């Protein structure tokens, strides 16, 4: 197949869940198919990015942001508003994106076009070939969940934005021949939002081979915790603030020397202000997470909003690092509480679960072993790429 894979970013370095997912799936597809990555960027492609794409066998097409006058930007945004596009899905410089993708499709004759994330759906919507939307989250539902956490009067405009996003999401879904969800939960939600569509589930995954040596090793610390997540993503910000304010103080009463490392790019001042240099350290973007996994006893996932499934949990499974998560954090994974991880939703229960793991060596090793086996059997990228390939082959036959 000739596959056009449209992304809102160049998927390198692997600094976010979207980049990790799209890079590994595209790399596996490129072993058997002709894959062209169509990416947006605010800067020129670096030598490292070009090298990574070339080594993965991926053809890279990038549309860079170009300078525009202020009046031109205003006119561009107004045109999108008239067409019902939510503000968070707008780019002032998108006319060149449409021209480039349409000319590329006309020249290459793609069998199928894939939009990774709702943000990219509009750019493939005008193409003649079959189109597939990968929904990393159900965006309208995610916005609604975040709006519900806002205090009045800010909650009202946030709820209006959620409704606006939901309407736009339905419109884009109707323009696709197929939809891919990253969890059965999201697939069910999408089917309820737009009866008649049948989303195909291709879960998030992990490269188990990259973590094999780490999984077999010992942990350097029994009191170090780890949180990983892009810190410009609002649910991650909420998770860290909640953990720091409600859970960590409970843990420090039991273990005064406990520390948590918060790793993830683009931390705000609100997050960096939590860094006390002792019990909570904000590291920002970390190029290689393996040393952090090696020195951490537990990965914590205190998410209270979000969709899809958590790449961070799967990486911890592959690395042999036990996980304590909220129900929402573990949503979308076929992982059982007490078998593969521990699930807790209140601050007291979450803290108690962390303490239980640190004090019960048998439970600790049981979770490590079971979680690694689950990652190998169900969530390795090679396994998931075959499901994704089948979904694209099925879509390529539709018009």
The biggest beta sheet is recorded as: 7 strands, parallel
Distance between the termini: 16 Å
Question: What is the count of helical runs?
Answer: 17
Radius of gyration: 21 Å
Large-scale geometry: globular
Q: Indicate the low-confidence ranges by residue numbers.
A: none
* Spatial arrangement of strands, main beta sheet: 3-2-1-4-5-6-7
Helix % is 40-55%
| Beta-strand residue percentage | 15-25%
Give the name of the CATH architecture of the largest domain: 3-Layer(aba) Sandwich
User: How many structural domains does the protein architecture include?
Assistant: 2
Q: On the 0-100 scale, what is the average pLDDT?
A: 92
Task: Using brief descriptors, characterize the structure shown.
399 residues, Rossmann fold, 2 domains, six-stranded parallel beta sheet, 13 strands, globular
């Amino acid at each position: 197949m000739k596959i056009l894979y449209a992304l809102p970013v160049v998927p390198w370095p692997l600094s976010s869940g979207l980049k990790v997912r799209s890079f590994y799936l595209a790399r596996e597809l490129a072993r058997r198919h002709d894959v062209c990555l169509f990416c947006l960027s605010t800067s020129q492609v670096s030598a490292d990015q070009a090298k990574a794409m070339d080594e993965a066998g991926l053809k890279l097409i990038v549309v860079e942001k170009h300078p525009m006058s202020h009046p031109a930007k205003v006119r561009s945004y107004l045109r999108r508003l008239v067409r019902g596009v939510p503000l968070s899905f707008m780019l002032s410089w998108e006319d060149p994106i449409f021209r480039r993708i349409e000319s590329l499709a006309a020249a290459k004759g793609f069998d199928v076009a894939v939009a990774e994330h709702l943000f990219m759906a509009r750019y493939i919507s005008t193409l003649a070939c079959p189109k597939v939307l990968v929904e990393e989250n159900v965006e309208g539902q995610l916005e609604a969940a975040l709006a519900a956490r806002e205090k009045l009067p800010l909650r009202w405009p946030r709820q209006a934005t959620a409704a606006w996003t939901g309407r736009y999401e339905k419109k884009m879904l109707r323009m696709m021949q197929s939809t891919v969800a990253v969890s059965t939960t999201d697939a069910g939600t999408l089917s309820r939002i737009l009866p008649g569509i049948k989303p195909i589930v291709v879960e998030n995954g992990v490269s188990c081979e990259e973590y094999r040596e780490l999984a077999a090793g010992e942990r350097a610390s029994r009191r170090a915790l780890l949180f990983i997540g892009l810190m410009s993503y609002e649910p991650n910000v909420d998770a860290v603030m909640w953990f720091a304010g409600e859970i960590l103080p409970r843990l420090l009463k039991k273990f005064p020397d406990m520390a948590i490392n918060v790793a993830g790019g683009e931390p705000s001042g609100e997050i960096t202000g939590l860094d006390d240099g002792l019990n909570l350290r904000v590291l920002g973007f970390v190029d290689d997470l393996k040393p952090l996994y090696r020195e951490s006893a537990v990965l914590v996932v205190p998410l209270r909003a979000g969709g899809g499934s958590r790449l961070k949990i799967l990486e911890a499974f592959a690395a042999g690092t036990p996980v304590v998560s909220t129900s929402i954090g573990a949503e979308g994974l076929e992982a059982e509480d007490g078998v593969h991880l521990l699930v807790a939703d209140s601050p007291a229960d979450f803290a108690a679960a962390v303490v239980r793991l640190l004090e019960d060596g048998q439970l600790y090793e049981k979770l490590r072993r079971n979680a690694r086996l689950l990652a190998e059997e169900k969530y390795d990228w090679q396994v998931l790429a075959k499901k994704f390939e089948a979904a694209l082959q099925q879509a390529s036959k539709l018009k």
